[in-house]
Specification:
Length: 105
């Protein structure tokens, strides 16, 4: 996460379906719960053991712009999925502000 400068990332299953998102805070909470930062000990865990499925819920690709804006007010980014729940992309607050600024011109 640090290298790519994101604070959270979407998590996909083997078929590219959106499962949830994981944040830096989730990793920190996990380390505090396990009581160790030992790399070998942490390798016993999987992302599914750490992620919160209710964090950054996805919206369908057909979602109204107003729903996307409402979601972005509550979360850092909005995952967008198709009818199969496959991740199509994410909308960031920066994307929304840019789109709104373009619309105001």
């Amino acid at each position: 996460l640090t290298r790519c400068r994101y604070t959270a990332l979407p998590v996909l299953d083997d078929e590219e379906r959106y499962v949830g998102s994981v944040s830096e805070g989730d990793f920190l909470r996990h380390i505090l719960q396990t009581g160790t930062t030992d790399k070998t000990a942490q390798e016993a865990y999987r992302i599914r053991d750490i992620l919160r499925r209710d964090f950054c819920p996805a919206l369908p690709i057909e979602a109204d712009f107003s729903l996307v804006v409402e979601a972005a007010l509550r979360q850092n980014f909005v995952p967008v999925v198709d009818g199969r729940n496959v991740l199509c992309g994410i909308v960031t607050r920066r994307n929304l502000i840019a789109a709104m600024a373009d619309g105001a011109r």
